[in-house]
């Protein structure tokens, strides 16, 4: 067993890349399909994400980040022999900034949960969607730099493509404290509905084995097929966990009571905060992304729910949040944040971050945010990120040059030449 320093949750947010656009590539992701063809604002999008990072850091939390992947992806364009006759969506895949949603970058098992006492990360293959399937080799490269310390981290290749894996978006961890072993819950979908089930049970089981989890502390639960059909393409659209708390919609799981019982059997301290369907319908939960929230333990010990500002615009959702706060439950604050550019592609506050429980001193410091670094990033974004991208510009060589140069400017500013 390695010696464990002070383990804290570090949120690694994906910085929104300069090619951020609305191409409508994700079937089953209602926001993304609805906004297909809209004009995107990459600069505003990146600054919104950075503001979220800054506000969490200002609350005393350790904040990390992962950087945009190289786009347009020349390898993918070549592999698909993209030419003037190719459908726009195929070309757009190679331009996607989807790596911003780092909840899909990997699944993470903190050191106290694993057989060898290291924190394990498995890059997610994301095979269900073309534009996301190109991410994992570059994500892996980045994870291997950020978590290069092999005494404390083990970074695994993605599981084979026969089994779709969408990473931490379908994974929840319960614990009484980060130094104690937790219980890890994997939520998978079954195919057959009108939209793809993106997380395969066998991918989840392989990840649990790769990470050396104790089978008594790993729970596998089926997502409600009705939730997938209603647009919950990942479990984190209808449920989120932190510490002892599971915050979930009443229709999140195929067998709701069975899911609670299975988690409680492995983790008796479980506290469920369930939102009933008559207070917030599945459709309203999905359009506001109430559950795609960051459920954070603040340094004071209080739990706060960082929700998209869309939640405040919904009378049903905001009313429910207010009554929850009045009821004196475990969640003591609800904090709206504006990530509307990401939301329009189906990515809320929780999609934008990968949680890694680790001693910050063991992480490559170039991936940890400071106020000065945030200022520097904001300057690079303001100078280099396109203000807007219209759908017809995807494929434009001048725009491609601008996007490539923008990313390189950021890598230079952050002293990460290995990623160029
Ligand atoms: O994979 N959207 C992403 C959103 C991911 C949200 N992540 C979590 N729930 N954790 C997706 O569907 C849209 C891109 C486009 O259509 O251009 C997109 O990929």
Describe this structure in words.
The protein has 14 helices and 15 strands. The strands form five sheets. The chain has a three-stranded mixed sheet, covered by helices on one side. β13 (303-308), α11 and β14 (331-337) form a beta-alpha-beta unit. 52% of the residues are buried. α2 packs antiparallel against α13. It is globular. The chain has one domain: Succinylarginine dihydrolase (L-arginine/glycine Amidinotransferase, Chain A), CATH 3.75.10.20. It has 420 residues and is an alpha/beta fold. Bound molecules: N~2~-(3-carboxypropanoyl)-L-arginine.
Compute the number of strand runs.
15
Number of separate structural domains: 1
What distance lies between the first and last C-alpha atoms, to the nearest angstrom?
Answer: 35 Å
Element-by-element helix/strand order: EHHEHHEEHHEEEHEHEEHEHEEHEHEHH
Q: What is the CATH class designation?
A: Alpha Beta
Q: Pick out the low-confidence regions.
A: none
* Percentage of β-strand residues: 15-25%
- What integer is the average pLDDT? 97
Q: Strand pairing plus helix content: what structural class?
A: alpha/beta
Radius of gyration: 20 Å
**CATH architecture type:** 5-stranded Propeller
Name the hetero compounds present: N~2~-(3-carboxypropanoyl)-L-arginine
Task: Give me the side-by-side strand order of the main sheet.
Answer: 2-1-15
**Helical amount:** 25-40%
Number of helices, where a helix is a run of at least 4 consecutive DSSP H or I residues:
14
CATH superfamily, please? Succinylarginine dihydrolase
Query: The CATH topology, please?
Result: L-arginine/glycine Amidinotransferase, Chain A
Characterize the overall form. globular
Q: What profile does the largest beta sheet have? A: 3 strands, mixed
